[in-house]
Amino acid sequence: MTSKPIVLWTPKPTLASDDACTTILQYKLPPAPSTIRPPYQSLHDADVKLRYVPPLTYFCLKALAEYPDEVHALGAARLRYQAPRSRSQFDILSALIPTYRPFDRDSDAFDLSFVDPRLWAVLIQVYEDLPPVFHEYTLPLSDAHMPLLQSIPNTSHFSLVTILILSRCRVLTDDTVLELRHLHTLAALDVSVTALGTWGVQRLAKSLAWSEADPDRPAERRGPWGLRILDLRNCINVNDKVFYWLARFPLLSVVGEQHDASSRTNVCPLDLHIDIWHQRWQTSGVPYAHPGDTAAYPSNRARTRTSTTRTP
Q1: N or C: more exposed end of the chain, with fewer CB within 10 A?
Q2: pTM, entire model
């Protein structure tokens, strides 16, 4: 499956003139995809050679890594991960991910960003009882594989949850917010202190739709139907009319509104709401995303983490 990356971009018009002195309004197109390789495409890990013959499971998982959105077709059966008891014992995670060394002193500081997100998505769908470090994944919003992860369907034993924080993001507007319609597993969204207004919330609410059914696959919901938490604090372009459109999100239960600093009523931070929601729904991790350096990724260097939930 190939989809274009999710890029937040606001075209800036500039005035120019041609040889006939005709005034022309020019718009700058989004910059080309960054040439900076993401951490999981590091060259030094591209050709790692094992000193032993791995089991068939190793090769199956390597092959499945190209198709994380098709793993559900294998059925509800899952494998139980068994951590190795010694360094000499085979570990499927260490074989697939050479940088993962469970017996090192700093194993808790393992950086999951060096793991291909497609491989991670396969592992969390196939295995149960993975180490806690695999429960969450941080990924830039504009990463090439983000649309692919968002297309992974929910099953009776697995679901993907996405939480995105775009607080103070300067490129998030009523126009660019429509790009978030591609986040089909979006559960919590922080757009506080941005230019987003009631019109933008209306556009996002109208993006909730159904895909066309075909003989092989029934119609599916498209858009952020699962949005439960929305932080609109200090969005000066939001007015009371927003409540009409917020009602369009069927699962929305927590909304952070603009508030007066002198008010005695303290708005609960989004992080706390996420923790409460995380415990209630028995998710295995709480994802976050923060805007960062725009030089690395054209959109806003926002990062999202996705985590799994399991039905008891």
Answers
A1: C
A2: 0.77
- Give me the pLDDT at residue 301, please: 39
Q: In one letter, which amino acid is 12? A: K
Count Cβ neighbours within 10 Å for each residue of 214-237 and write b for 16 or more, e otherwise: eeeeeeeebbbbbbbbbbbbbbeb
* The pLDDT of residue 50: 77
- DSSP-derived pairing of the beta strands 127-128 and 13-17: unpaired
DSSP 8-state class, residue 70: G
> Angle 56-64/117-126 helices, nearest 10 degrees?
120
Low-confidence stretches of the chain (pLDDT beneath 50): 258-268, 272, 276-277, 279-303, 305-306, 310-312
Report which of 178, 151, 180, 175 is spatially closest to residue 163, judged by C-alpha positions.
180
Locate the DSSP E strands across the chain.
13-17, 23-27, 79-80, 127-128, 136-140, 159-165, 186-190, 209-210, 221-222, 229-231, 254-256, 303-309
Residue 246: the pLDDT is 95
Reduced to 3 states (helix: H, G, I; strand: E, B; else coil), residue 119 is: helix
Q: What are phi and psi of 288, to 5 degrees?
A: -135, 170
Tell me, what's the pLDDT at 33?
61
